[in-house]
Amino acid sequence: QSYCHRLQHDMYFLTSTSRLNEQVVDKIILQLNRVYPQILTNEEAEKFRNPKASLHTRLSDLLKHLQKKGDRHCQEFYRALQINAEELFNDLPSRKVLKTPDPTEIDTDKEQYMLNDRGPVFFLACFSVAAGLALFWYCSNSDTKVVGRARRILGFSPIIIGRHVRNICMLYLEDISRD
């Protein structure tokens, strides 16, 4: 959907009951006047910032003017609106239409949640088991003389692994050292 069509769709929402205040509209107009490429000329910016006209009239005229100018101008308006009034930008009807999911698409947020529903404790438990298995494998190698070092490491690890697991590891290391 082009930005001009989106702006036409959002026009009533933007101009209704003081969604945009005077300062925000002035900031948007000034940004459109100063951005490269210049969207509004100095004369146009002064016309849309005229305090004698009502805010509703000025905003309606600005939106109609941008629609006549083309898609690039409407796109820059949306960019200025996002910078100066992000909450309003996120509440636009055209944004809500863009956010509604296609029933044939996979909802990646839901899929991500489904894959990660176990939490950080599960990850830490799996990591601890893997680290313990790696340590056992390394210590069971008869060519290395690390049993004493491994025993010291396991002796200081009641915080990292449970007391029962540590006792089992110590018994295993004692059995290896006897052989």
Automatic annotation (TrEMBL):
Gene name of this polypeptide: Card19
GO CC, any one term: mitochondrial membrane
Protein location: Endoplasmic reticulum membrane; Mitochondrion membrane
SUPFAM superfamilies: DEATH domain
Keyword terms, alphabetized: Disulfide bond, Endoplasmic reticulum, Membrane, Mitochondrion, Transmembrane, Transmembrane helix
Protein topology in the membrane: Single-pass membrane protein
Residue ranges annotated for the CARD domain, each copy included: 38-96
Parts of the chain that traverse the membrane: 120-138
The protein's assembly and partners: Associates with BCL10 by CARD-CARD interaction.
InterPro entries attached to this UniProt entry: CARD, CARD19, CARD_BinCARD, DEATH-like_dom_sf
Keyword Ion transport part of the UniProt annotation: no
Pfam families recorded: CARD
Name assigned to this protein: Caspase recruitment domain-containing protein 19
GO biological process, one term: regulation of apoptotic process
